[in-house]
Design a protein that fits this description.
GO terms for molecular function: ATP binding; corrinoid adenosyltransferase activity. It is an enzyme of class 2 (transferase). One of its GO terms (biological process) is cobalamin biosynthetic process. The protein contains 6 helices and 4 strands, in the order E-E-H-H-H-E-H-H-E-H. It is 59% helix and 5% strand.
Length: 189
Amino acid sequence: MKIYTKTGDKGFTSLIGGTRVAKHNIRIESYGTVDELNAWIGLIADQQIAENHQEILKQIQETLFIIGANLAADPERSKMTLPELTATDIQLLEETIDSMDNELPQLTHFILPGGNTTVSYTHLARCVCRRAERIVTHLAEESKVNELIIIYLNRLSDYLFVLGRKLASELNIAENQWIPSAKKNKKIY
């Protein structure tokens, strides 16, 4: 089987179920952004981080594949049985967030992305995750979307934020706190 099919050369592609849509269709944007997020998660997992983080990130990647498959299916025409997202997937994120958060100092300031390449990757992934969430919520206004997908993406962005803090702590990187200066608070007319 060849990797290229030539069926998308004119700007259209098929959803699971056979429906042909433009490649800029909101459904394509939604699962394409989830795929982009999955690549960022893989980049984080490839860093020199603790094995327990790598294991969770691998589970997240597998869950993102399930989400992508569900978003790629035409809810009106697909007869294919796809793996489903479950509340347990969300619970894993919540428990992991709580566990990491309990080991971190209380958050007292906004955190600026940066300080270390690995930490920056988590912030980039968080931003892509937020974009995926925005696109999927837009799709949900037009078409059927499993609401657990939206919840999962929302929780995943929280996980990535806390993971960035946790990695900074483990790598002995000072958090890049945003503390507005008095100069920046002056009104300029």
